[in-house]
Amino acid sequence: MNITLPPTPSGRYFKAYGFLLFLLLSLFASLGAAYAQTGTTATSATTVYTDKPDYLPGDVVIIEGNGWQVGEQVKLEIDHSTVSHGNTVLYATADSKGYIYNNQFVIQPIHLGESFTLAATGLTSGLTAQNKFTDGNASITTSLSPKTSVCAGSTVNLNASASGTDGVTWEYNAGSSWAPITNGTNGYTITNTVNPGNKIDSKLTFISGTVQNSYDFRATFAGNNSGGSAATSTSFYSLPVGAPVFASGATSTRCQGAGTVTYTAAAANSTSITYSLVSSPANAGNTIDASTGAVTYVAGFFGTATITASAAGCNGPKTATHVATIDPLPSAAGTITGTSPVCARATGVSYS
Questions:
Q1: CA angle 177, 216, 189 (to 5 degrees)
Q2: pLDDT at site 138
Q3: What are 9-25's pLDDT values in tens digits?
Q4: What are phi and psi of 350, to 5 degrees?
């Protein structure tokens, strides 16, 4: 019996298959060794990130990441956009889940306006990840109050605040140009409070002038690498209001009867004058025009009418009164009866 064997593969096939088998065995051996050493495998989900995308001076940057080799040290290099500041290098160690954490980088005033590139490199695994964050790219925001009228000779407090700034300058303008205000001179006091994130609360205190006028005040905030911002406030100094004076004096009289009488008053530096009426006896039916002081009397009223003028203005209101006395009409004339006519030198004549 003849047995036919299959052709024997050529030597080149043995060489190819052998090389492929060698590669597969080497790969499995490397993965097995890595698993035995770390208890986990490297993944493509390696990340690094910060708790916020943008910061202000004084903020702490929290750096975190996932997917790193357990126990390895991860280099965290922060590349500043401003070349003169140089790079910052920090380190974090991956925990049993491959998580890293670092809170050692604090934003400084000199960083305002910068952008940062954060590059993380696993010193054992060689894994890398990258992210970005910024410091105060937003423009400075300001607020200033009040913008109002004040009484001449009174204390004025102007308040200004700004975030992301490293200084404030106060100025005033009483004419056509701005002039700086120096703390402690000409009656001005400047009080600055610096809060976290370079937020400045500034207060300007002074005694207003004794001449009626309008003044502008300005607070200008400086921002490193992000320009500045200014806010203005106008204060109008008004003189104190005077007490009202009635044109007809403090008192007057009239006879009982229907009619309208206007009681006007004037007051220095007043913005407006209003009038009110109190009649005695009450509920008599008399009325008053609060804007003009015109009193309308009813026919049957007699007694007193007290008109009060109230002047509005600085340090007001100021008031004054006018008392009008309304006299009753006399009784009607009577009749006389008796003998009429009567002769001259007659006696004993009676009248009633």
A1: 100
A2: 41
A3: 444 444 444 555 555 55
A4: -110, 140
Residue type for position 135: D
Q: Give the whole-angstrom CA distance, residue 95 versus residue 43.
A: 15
List, in order, residues 6 or more apart from 268 with CB less than 8 Å away. Answer: 239, 241, 242
Q: For residue 236, give the H/E element and its range.
A: strand 227-238
Nearest to 328 by CA among 275, 277, 284: 284
**How crowded is residue 36: how many other Cβ atoms within 10 Å of its Cβ?**
8
User: How far is residue 250's CA from residue 243's CA, in Å, rounded to a whole number?
Assistant: 13
Residue 110, both tokens = 């000199």
Nearest to 274 by CA among 294, 295, 293: 293
Output the pLDDT for position 250: 97
Question: How does DSSP assign 309-348, residue by residue?
Answer: EEEESBT--EEEEEEEEEEPPPPPP----B--S--TT---
Residue with tokens 């502008």: 216
The percentage of the chain sitting over the pLDDT mark of 90, rounded to a whole number, equals 42
Residue numbers of the chain with a pLDDT score lower than 50: 1-17, 28-43, 137-140, 224-227
Q: Output the six-digit token pair for 74.
A: 């991860």
Which are the contacts of 261, defined by CB distance < 8 A and separation ≥ 6?
A: 254, 294, 295, 297, 324
Q: What angle do CA 218, 219, 224 make, to 5 degrees?
A: 140
Query: One-letter amino acid identity for 208?
Result: S
Cα distance between residue 208 and residue 315, in whole Å: 14
pLDDT tens digit sequence for 315-333:
889 999 999 999 998 877 6
> Which pTM value belongs to this model?
0.45
Q: What's the pLDDT score for residue 86? A: 80
CA angle 299, 300, 303 (to 5 degrees): 110
| Lookup: tokens for 140 | 């400075």
Q: How far apart are CA 245 and CA 318, in angstroms?
A: 10
C-alpha span between 279 and 61 (Å, rounded): 75
Residue 215 has a pLDDT of 76
Backbone torsions φ then ψ of 293, nearest 5 degrees? 80, 15
Residue 46 neighbours by CB under 8 Å, 6+ apart:
65, 66, 67, 68, 122, 127, 128, 129
